[in-house]
Design brief:
Radius of gyration: 20 Å
Structural class: mainly alpha
Number of strands: 0
Largest sheet: none
Distance between the termini: 25 Å
Length: 325
């Protein structure tokens, strides 16, 4: 326990010092990795317990557009718009999840329902072009440096906002991974009928994890759009975004606390690498590569990169064991 606390303390100190050491471009990448990492972590809340959603882009888009539209149209500060987006995403999760879980829609059927949800939200954003800008996108109204408008002077301030939110989401994940709730969700993932026979309220537990995942995703989408200062259905909603979330969480390792964030770094490195190497000649190639790599990871590395690394570390002989041998 002491060793774990020391490692956590050193890691936290490194994260605090990081923005003062990195060049502006790499700090920009790290901020995106933290925000996308918490969204991927929110997806892993469900994925690690067998609830596969292919429509989390819907919740990301709901959160992003809710806070941006409230600010642009009514002058409502994003500090209130972000919770409003989270509440709307949670309500949408209840509307979709309650009938699905009540009617025992599971597995690939539930995945298809969420996939359709993501596409419906993206099409609604495009259809409401007079308000949302449609496929051309929209920009939150810029007012310069203003804490009230969630617009900061430099990236260092935004980094700490992203870092705090990321740490909070990791804390939620650790809390949800302990105690009876984890045991209940794992039992539901293995066999719902047996879990219900053991006295577990299957509907309540599944709805709880779905709603929390949706709300956290909406918060991440809101802050991501506020940081980028541009919203587009292709970047914050739709099937493509949903599949990127799934790929990043699986590639990094959804059973590892830091795996989804590692997957976010991987996808950003891939996207930026393709952009630097090929410019506009391979537009859309990243999604193709995501698909190919997703197949590779599911077949050969289902626990992801960090999951495999953790297994390797656990299998190493301990110094005391080696000495005793």
């Amino acid at each position: 326990m002491t060793e774990t606390r020391v490692v956590a303390g050193v890691g936290l100190a490194a994260l605090i010092a990081l923005p003062f050491l990195l060049p502006s471009y790499f700090l920009h990448i790290v901020i995106q990795a933290l925000l996308l990492g918490l969204i991927n972590t929110a997806w892993s809340f469900m994925g690690r317990f067998g609830l596969v959603s292919l429509g989390h882009g819907a919740f990301m888009g709901v959160g992003a557009y809710t806070s941006a539209l409230l600010w642009n149209l009514y002058g409502v500060t994003p500090w209130l718009g972000i919770p409003a987006g989270m509440a709307l995403a949670a309500l949408l999760a209840v509307v979709i999840g309650l009938p699905c879980f009540h009617l025992r829609i599971v597995g690939h059927y539930f995945a298809l329902v969420t996939l359709a949800l993501g596409q419906v939200v993206a099409l609604l954003i495009i259809a409401a072009r007079d308000v949302t800008g449609g496929s051309l996108g929209m920009t939150p109204r810029a007012v310069g440096t203003s804490v009230l408008a969630f617009q900061f002077q430099d990236r260092v301030q935004f980094y700490f906002v992203a870092l705090v939110l990321w740490l909070v989401v990791l804390g939620i994940r650790v809390w949800a991974s302990r105690g009876m709730r984890r045991a209940a969700l794992e039992a539901i993932g293995e066999d719902e009928t047996a879990a219900e026979a053991a006295g577990i309220n299957v509907l309540r537990e599944k709805l709880w994890v779905f709603v929390v995942s949706a709300a956290v995703t909406a918060a991440g989408g809101s802050i991501f759009a506020q940081y980028i200062m541009y919203l587009n259905p292709e970047t914050v909603s739709g099937v493509g975004v949903s599949l990127q979330i799934v790929f990043a969480a699986i590639a990094g390792g959804m059973y590892s606390a830091l795996g989804p964030t590692g997957g976010a770094l991987l996808t950003l490195a891939l996207t930026e690498g393709l952009r630097v190497l090929f410019g506009t000649t391979l537009v859309g190639a990243a999604n193709t590569i995501y698909g190919i790599l997703l197949i590779v990871f599911i077949v050969f590395m289902p626990r992801g990169i960090l999951g495999v690394a953790e297994q390797w570390l656990d299998r190493r002989p301990r110094p005391q064991a080696a000495a005793a041998g």
